[in-house]
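Here is one chain, start to finish.
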Amino acid sequence: MSPSEDEIFADLWEKEQQRPKTEDLLQYSSLREKMNAFGGYQNFESGTQFLYFIKHELPEILAGKKVVFRGMTQAKYRLFNKAQRAYQANKSANVKDEKTFHSSIEQMIGNARTVNNSVLANFFKTAGLRDNDVAILSFLQHYGAPTPFMDWTTDLYTSLYFALSSCTDEQLERYQNGPATYEIDDYFCFYMLIEDHILDMVSSFSQLSISSKSAVKYRTLKKKKFQYIDERFKGGKPVFSLVNNLHITNQKGLFIYNNSSHMPLEEVFLLHWTMHYLGNMSKGRKTPRTPMMCINFHKSIGHRLRKVLLELGINDETIYSKPEVIAKKAVPEILNALG
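Its structure:
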């Protein structure tokens, strides 16, 4: 009797879990090593070619498709979320101890609800937002807590802003004018995922939540290998209440959840993609690489790219909208006498 797809996936998953994980595996050692992890992969060293690609070629390639993007300040970093990185940095933790990892996430959610006289829970209630674990994690994610969510965006140029975000203008000028080297440390990158590819492989977490009368609980979410989480609506009301801070609005953000304590998202995605095309494997065809696409671009391009982003109005103030800045800019000159 042939094993079921679930049994084969479980076997693949178990083998992957048994792979040794060291600090070196938090990042790729070279562009060549990284290339093997992605279905679509391209490097750019020329600013002119890169800008032509994102302005003209890429829109044609992605025409009619819903795509999500993530920019990275270093091309060498694997796609670990902040909770994974924090957990792996804790020398006393067994990085493969999934139970402790998830317990720490649940403890963080509980703490968030009660800190400062339960101000966050009260905020959700008074604002008419659904108090649920996904909403709590969304709030914590945008204020720097180590959550199992990873930020993605529906806007290419927003992802490119984040790719450059760790560099000052002076640093980008030095990259542009300095001696050119072409190691993996010399590249920014961004990733692309076609929404249909994700939704083909996983049951919709939003549908599970919409059909449930209870609040969305982390204990439900952690049973999933990974999930694509954007805001959905039922009866005109938001299901997850993700838009609970100003950041996510201009960032056009959404999340991808990874429940592993130690596997980067590209590896989890590859396992799902492999199972999705199990029929091809059984026929002896080559296992396809993940449909996650990766574009690396040399840091010397960063200075020109930032100018393009500024022309589009994408900057620190618009991406990280601060209430006090909005209030200050709203005041007309005639009311500014008090300074």
